[in-house]
Structure formats: structure tokens, C-alpha cells
Design goal:
With about 150 residues, the chain is of the alpha/beta class. The chain contains three helices and seven strands. It folds into two domains: about 25-80, no CATH class; about 95-154, Chitinase A, domain 3. The protein has helices at about 30-55, 55-75, 125-130, and strands spanning about 30, 80, 95-100, 105-110, 120-125, 140-145, 145-154. Strand 6 (about 140-145) and strand 7 form a beta hairpin.
């Protein structure tokens, strides 16, 4: 067949964006984390409506992909309420640690979508969080090359 009869892409179709990957881990969230998911879903919905109104195919594809992601995260979210006891570290706890280099750090163990280490929030699937689960004040944990002592749990 001659190339004269093959339709070349003209840019009029939707762009092909890869899907945002969904974690294989349980979607445990704090109440604040669920609110963040709801806000992101609403933001993606608004972006989708705007892209449809503006007839912007790139924005439409991006907003539709984001909506699918946040819809899936919202559908699988499992709110884990704060534990009554702080005897053993669990999801949602805030933990103060002493590092072997003399620094102290405080982290709250949260859901994956709400994780922000720079703001003291680590995902429950992060190696540090996994090492801390079930431990108590005074226990030491080794993460990578560092040893950490648990100073406080709240």
C-alpha cells in the first residue's frame, strides 16, 4: 500500500499519558489524609470541567487521568483513627527520635498520599515507619546505617 493513503497523526486526538501508579499497599489514611484526597479529587474534577469548556485536549487528558487516580484512592481509602494507647507505635502516631549523630527528629506516620518528610510526615510503608511499628519509648531501631532511639510517642 502506498504511504499516500496512510493517515498521519495530525495532533487532533487525545494525548497518550501514562496512568499514575496506584500503590499495592493498603490505602490507610488519617482523617486529614482523607480530606486531602477529597480536595485533590475536587480539584481534578474542576480541572476536567474547565478543560472540557476550553476544549483543551492536553489539559483534558491530564485532568481525566488525575480524576481516575484520585477516584481510585478515594474508593480504597481506609481511615485509621488515632490509637487510644501510645504504648506501642502504630499508624497515626507522632514519634520523636534521637539519631546516632546527636540530632533529634519528629515524624508522624501517615498514609502514602499525605506523606511529606520535609514537614515531618512519613508514609506507613516507608522503611523507617515499618521499623518503628510495635516499638516503644526507649527502644532502638536500626534503619540503614543509622541507629535511632525512640524518645517519645504521642
Amino acid at each position: 500500500m502506498s504511504r499516500a493513503f496512510v493517515k498521519e497523526p495530525d495532533g487532533s486526538g487525545p494525548i497518550d499519558l501514562p496512568e499514575l501508579s496506584i500503590s499495592e499497599h493498603p490505602n490507610d489514611v488519617t482523617t486529614e489524609g482523607l480530606a486531602q484526597i477529597e480536595a485533590e479529587f475536587a480539584r481534578a474534577h474542576d480541572a476536567l470541567i474547565k478543560a472540557q469548556d476550553d476544549d483543551e485536549r492536553d489539559s483534558l487528558a491530564r485532568a481525566a487521568r488525575d480524576m481516575r487516580y484520585w477516584e481510585a484512592r478515594r474508593a480504597t481509602a481506609h481511615v485509621v483513627h488515632n490509637a487510644d494507647s501510645t504504648e506501642y507505635i502504630r499508624f497515626g502516631h507522632t514519634v520523636k527520635l534521637a539519631r546516632d549523630d546527636g540530632r533529634e527528629q519528629t515524624f508522624r506516620i501517615v498514609g502514602e498520599d499525605e506523606s511529606d518528610p520535609a514537614r515531618g510526615k512519613i508514609s506507613h510503608v516507608a522503611p523507617l515507619a515499618r521499623a518503628l511499628f510495635g516499638k516503644s519509648v526507649g527502644d532502638a531501631v536500626r534503619v540503614g546505617e543509622h541507629e535511632l532511639e525512640i524518645l517519645e510517642v504521642r
